[in-house]
């Protein structure tokens, strides 16, 4: 029997070709992944990710396995997160996603992780924002000016027509660089010199930084705003002050992960009200008129559905 076992290797450039301009398909896949995960009927098996600390170099190694029966697929994302890599001129997040057939265990593809991680995280935020933000949001504030800030800008301006987009970054020159890059493409964004100025009256806020301590305070946030908390993905880091966490209705992607991984939840001692999948399933309410927090940690099933979207587009292109 002939058996060609070679998996395809999809680098960032190829992935970008098959994922760019496909926000609606990606958002729809991610919505499905939230539903499958929160259905709790064994269709998705996703343990809490493992991580190893690289103490000497301020690094982490994450391993994120998952099986999705409806997709007949298995995946594992393996990434490193090195906080000081900007000093080396390297990305802080690197790695690969391995995509297997669940039917026979064949490794189908190896995909570079950064582009998918950027897009699927922003796409997941888009799903949460669609359910939790007020109708017709006018002001968007993004805290951070890195990879996630860019992909969140892209997806949220795809979904909404904002009157104002404000960006704040710890190093203002990097914030200004991003604002210039976006304005050169025809957008109109402003760079703010402090967080309070950036979030004043904002309807939607994104925190996408590597801060370990809170950067966003309750007193600065308009009641009823929706906040997507993307950073602080470990039990000792926070992006939001505990008062803000306690005054908001808190949603997350995975309750099981949030209770062991999210400093914003653990240190603030808040209850998770619902997984976003439970809201989509109609099991829990979406409080659009209250201040809401979506604590995003990132799930392997999001990587699986996104990798599959790219792989399927690539293989159907080959058959043309
Ligand atoms: N929820 C999820 O699914 C995912 C979450 N993440 C998390 O999102 C966050 C952003 O990741 P990503 O955009 O890829 O990273 P980048 O390195 O591209 O950007 C990081 C941003 O954080 C800023 N920053 C660094 N240190 C601090 C600090 N002490 N206080 C405030 N801002 C700071 C950086 O500013 P400057 O460059 O000027 O130093 C930069 O704007 C990280 O916490 C990461 O772990 C990432 C992937 C998925
Ligand atoms: O889900 C993910 O890929 C990550 N979450 C935190 C860092 C990377």
Automatic annotation (TrEMBL):
Entry's EC annotation: 1.5.1.1, 1.5.1.25
Catalytically driven reaction(s): (3R)-1,4-thiomorpholine-3-carboxylate + NAD(+) = 3,4-dehydrothiomorpholine-3-carboxylate + NADH + 2 H(+); L-pipecolate + NADP(+) = Delta(1)-piperideine-2-carboxylate + NADPH + H(+); (S)-cystathionine ketimine + NADH + 2 H(+) = (3R,5S)-2,3,5,6,7-pentahydro-1,4-thiazepine-3,5-dicarboxylate + NAD(+); (R)-lanthionine ketimine + NADPH + 2 H(+) = (3R,5R)-1,4-thiomorpholine-3,5-dicarboxylate + NADP(+)
Signal peptide range in chain numbering: none
First-tier enzyme category under EC: oxidoreductase
A Pfam family matched in the record: OCD_Mu_crystall
Gene3D superfamilies in UniProt: NAD(P)-binding Rossmann-like Domain (3.40.50.720), ornithine cyclodeaminase, domain 1 (3.30.1780.10)
Domain of life, per lineage: Eukaryota
Family under the similarity heading: Belongs to the ornithine cyclodeaminase/mu-crystallin family.
Subunit-level organization: Homodimer. Binds the thyroid hormone triiodothyronine (T3); T3 binding inhibits enzymatic activity.
Record-linked PANTHER family: KETIMINE REDUCTASE MU-CRYSTALLIN
Name of the protein described by the UniProt record: Ketimine reductase mu-crystallin
Organism of origin: Limulus polyphemus
């Amino acid at each position: 029997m002939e058996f060609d076992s070679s998996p395809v290797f999809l680098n960032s450039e190829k992935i970008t070709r098959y994922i760019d301009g496909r926000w609606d398909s990606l958002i729809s896949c991610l919505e499905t992944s939230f539903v499958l995960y929160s259905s709790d009927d064994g269709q998705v098996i996703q343990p809490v990710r493992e991580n190893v600390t690289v103490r000497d170099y301020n690094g982490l190694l994450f391993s994120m396995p998952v099986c999705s029966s409806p997709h007949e697929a298995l995946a594992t994302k393996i990434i490193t997160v090195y906080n000081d890599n900007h000093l080396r001129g390297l990305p802080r997040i690197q790695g690969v996603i391995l995509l297997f057939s669940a039917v026979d265990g064949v490794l189908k593809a190896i995909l570079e992780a950064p582009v998918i991680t950027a897009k699927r995280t922003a796409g997941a935020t888009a799903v949460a924002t669609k359910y939790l933000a007020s109708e017709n949001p006018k002001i968007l504030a993004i805290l951070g000016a890195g990879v996630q800030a860019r992909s969140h800008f892209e997806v949220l301006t795809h979904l909404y027509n904002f009157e104002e987009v404000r960006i704040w970054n710890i190093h203002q020159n990097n914030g200004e660089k991003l604002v210039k890059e976006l304005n050169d493409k025809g957008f109109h964004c402003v760079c703010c010199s402090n967080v309070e100025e950036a979030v004043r009256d904002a309807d939607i806020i994104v925190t996408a930084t590597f801060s370990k301590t809170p950067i966003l305070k309750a007193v600065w946030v308009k009641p009823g705003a929706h906040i997507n908390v993307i950073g602080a993905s470990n039990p000792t880091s926070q992006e939001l002050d505990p008062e803000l966490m306690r005054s908001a209705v808190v949603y997350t992607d995975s309750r099981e992960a949030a209770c062991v991984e999210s400093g914003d939840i653990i240190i603030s001692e808040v209850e998770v009200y619902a997984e976003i999948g439970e809201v989509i399933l109609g099991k829990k309410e979406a409080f659009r008129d209250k201040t809401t927090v979506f604590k995003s940690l990132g799930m392997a099933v999001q990587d699986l559905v996104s990798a599959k979207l790219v792989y399927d587009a690539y293989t159907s292109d080959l058959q043309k």
